[in-house]
Amino acid sequence: VQLQASGGGSVQAGGSLRLSCKASGTNFRLFGMDWYRQAPGNQREWVATVSSSGTTTYLDSVRGRFTISRDNIRRTLYLQMDSLKPEDTAVYYCHILSYWGQGTLVTVSS
Prior knowledge:
The protein has 110 residues and is mostly beta strands. It has strands at residues 2-6, 9-12, 17-24, 33-38, 45-50, 56-58, 66-71, 76-81, 90-96, 99-100, 104-109. The strands form two sheets. Strands 2, 4, 5, 6, 9, 10 and 11 form a seven-stranded mixed sheet that branches. A four-stranded antiparallel sheet has the order 1-3-8-7, with no helix packed on it. The protein starts with a strand and ends with a strand. 30% of the residues are buried.
């Protein structure tokens, strides 16, 4: 299984970014997928999950600002991040089963 994440960058507070994670080597549509993040000096934390049926769950601090979604035909996971805050600054990782993407850096300046 390979996961290729992209879409990170630098934005000002209040801005938006969309992360993507392209999956290969697995029957993508059968499994739930997640986004995690790790800020400097912190442990990796769970951000959001989309189940195989499309049910979504979110970390309280991002609910209402972030939207996780999936495109089973394109085998791609997304994270739309709006109203970004400096505390959202982190490396974001996509995850499926026991596999992790390489991470993509999001930096939000005040």
